[in-house]
Amino acid sequence: MKEELTVKAIENGTVIDHIQADKLYKILSIIGIENFDTPVFFGNNLPSKKYGTKAIIKIADKYPSDDDANKIALIDPKAVINIIKDFKVVDKRQVQLPEKIEGFVKCFNPKCITNHEKVSTKFTVVKKDGKIGLKCRYCEKITWEDNIEII
Amino acid sequence: MKNKSLISINDYTKEEYFRILEVAAEFEKNPNQKLLDNYVVASLFFEPSTRTRLSFETAIQRLGGRVIGFSEATNTSQAKGESFNDTIMTISKYADLIVMRHPIEGSARYASEISRVPIINAGDGSNQHPTQCLLDLYSIYKTQGTLENLKLCLVGDLKYGRTVHSLLMAMSEFNPTFNFISPSSLRMPQEYKDYLDSKGIKYNEYEELEPNIKDADIVYVTRVQRERFSDLLEYEKVKNVYVLKNKMLDGTKDNMRVLHPLPRVNEIDVDVDANPKAYYFEQAENGVYTRMAIIALILGLK
Ligand SMILES: [Zn+2]
Question: CATH assignment of B131-284, given 3.50.50.60, 3.30.9.10, 3.40.50.1370, 3.40.50.11740?
Answer without folding.
Answer: 3.40.50.1370
